[in-house]
Amino acid sequence: MAFKYQQLAQQIVTEIHSDKLKAGDPLPALRKFAHQHQVSLTTANQAYEWLQRQGLIVAKAQSGFYVKGQPNSLPLSAPTPKSISIHHDPSDVIFDIMQNALTYDRIGLSNGFLDESLRPSLALQRSLKRTAKLANITANSYGHTQGEVKLRTAIAELMRSRFCLVDADDLLITNGCLEAVNLVVEHISQVGETVAILTPCYSGLLTALQYANRKIMEIPCDSQGPDMQHLAELFARRAFTTLIISATATNPLGFNLSHQDKKQLAALAKQHQIYIIEDDTFGSLAYHTQETGPAYAYQHDGFIIYCSSFSKDLTPGMRIGWIASDRLIPALMRRKVSMNITCSIPCQLAMADYLLSESYPAHLRKLRSTLQIQVMKLQACILENFPTGTRVSTPQGGFFIWVELPDSLLAMDIYRQSVQQGICFMPGHTFSMSGQYDHCLRLSVTKTWSHHLAHAVEQLGQIAEQLMQKQTACKTIVESN
Ligand SMILES: Cc1ncc(COP(=O)(O)O)c(C=O)c1O
Hints:
Mean pLDDT: 91
Bound molecules: pyridoxal-5'-phosphate
Structural class: alpha/beta
Number of helices: 15
Order of helices and strands: HHHEEEHHHEHEHEEHEHEEEHHHEEHEEH
CATH class of the largest domain: Alpha Beta
Strand content: 5-15%
Number of strands: 15
Number of domains: 3
Largest sheet: 9 strands, mixed
């Protein structure tokens, strides 16, 4: 954030978001606030005005400023099943729902990527233009399989700023993060072996493992992540040969693993010599700045392999992802050659140019704070419009909200109606191979909050309410017979 007033406002947003400041809590009077932070009265006033415009605080005449009432959210329910294996196949449904999202989603509530309004489109365009000439010359060849050295150097620097000891030689550029994970899974595990994932889990990983003929073990997570003791027991039993995790702003729950958990994961991988693949696609989108880096930053022995991309914080269309590993890059390069040789040179050069222009950190700071506010708005809107008993996640990063409907409601029943109105979302059962989460759904807020978005959420809530009423009416008829 560029201005002091925005930094101060952001601190208050974070306190509201983390429940340190609750609905109805008073804020310090302007003069006191200015004094506390050693800023002018004008700056203090600007901060409060900004928070008012975001709908986060209200001014009460002759009384002062208060945190605005947000509807109360019940915490997500605790996961019951312990690490279960696959017995249901959602891959056709996942495919249909993805296609629907591309064709019918006029609102964007199912999106897994940023809208134009939140992307640095102009800066990326400038980078594409600046590098077009160079790309034209170099595009006469396939380029280096490992990826353009300029790009690898820029990414290595980024990773070092997140406490990872990496240099350009430890990186392999891939076509997005999903290709990165696929390459690593195929290299470090064998057909028929068990790969564990955290559930609910991004559907792309589920289908990737399914097509790779790996058995899938689902490790349940609550809003803070997996039960680390349970995970340690699974490591000790060698219940899987590979574990895939995300440690930051996970899709769909939005939790960040603690410093302690990441340290423990690195230690477990080393102790049991079991590989962990860290999918850090959302790693740059944690709202809070006390970043401790990815789990990869905690390892010193090569058992964590890092995969990421710029698909979530910049653009998915350039398809720039990468793998970091201090021991597997040569072998992974051989696999990559046999698959698609290399990645697009113009896109790599343009991405390197953008990263070197140094506007990326400022973009991320702005994006994180925008997303945090958008997510709070979406959360409040869901709780206002969905049936009583609906629970929502409180993400610590990213742009998703996980919604748990009252048990009797099926997300697919809502979906079948809402898709007719051009409103799509991701139904919960696409996030698991075990058939659970059919009363859950994931909503995204990847564009600037607007009355269109609010209205679409309201419509979803109405459909859910009508379905609940129908159920109650049917129950009454059955009981009276
Ligand atoms: C957790 C996770 N990993 C990987 C991907 C795919 O990333 P990419 O588009 O870079 O392949 C996604 C996309 O939604 C994701 O949510």
